[in-house]
Design a protein that fits this description.
With about 120 residues, the protein is mostly helical. It has one domain (about 1-115). The protein has helices at about 1-25, 55-70, 80-95, 95-115.
Length: about 120
């Protein structure tokens, strides 16, 4: 049992490192989004320049998801809460298609490996 918990925790740590890199440091010229909001907090870059494609809100909000990914190994969250967090994550990521694309590998790992065992 300890080995399984350790493997899941290791997966969560890898997911968290991936999210930090993609949302805070990854610069690209590929843009999947067609529009942006006019507010500074929700504005993400458009065009062909090589820069971050995640808005300031996304760069801050991702740390809430990372906190849940790591803390679920120490705090027993109800399964409904975890499902609510992922539902909100998917809904909020629809504001920026780049965020949806960056989250896709994490969502697939969660759906196939982790959520069935909660």
């Amino acid at each position: 049992m300890i080995i399984i918990i350790t493997i899941y925790m290791f997966i969560s740590i890898l997911e968290s490192l991936y999210l930090i890199f993609m949302f805070c440091y990854f610069k690209t010229s590929i843009n999947f989004s067609k529009s942006s909001f006019y507010s500074y907090f929700f504005h993400h870059s458009l065009g062909n320049q090589r820069e971050l494609r995640i808005c300031p809100f996304g760069r801050v909000a991702i740390f809430g998801l990372i906190f849940i990914l790591i803390s679920r190994h120490f705090i027993m969250y109800p399964k409904k809460f975890i499902i609510f967090v992922w539902t909100m994550t998917i809904l909020l990521s629809t504001m920026n298609t780049n965020a949806m694309v960056y989250l896709l590998p994490i969502e697939l790992v969660e759906l196939s490996l982790i959520l069935p065992y909660l």
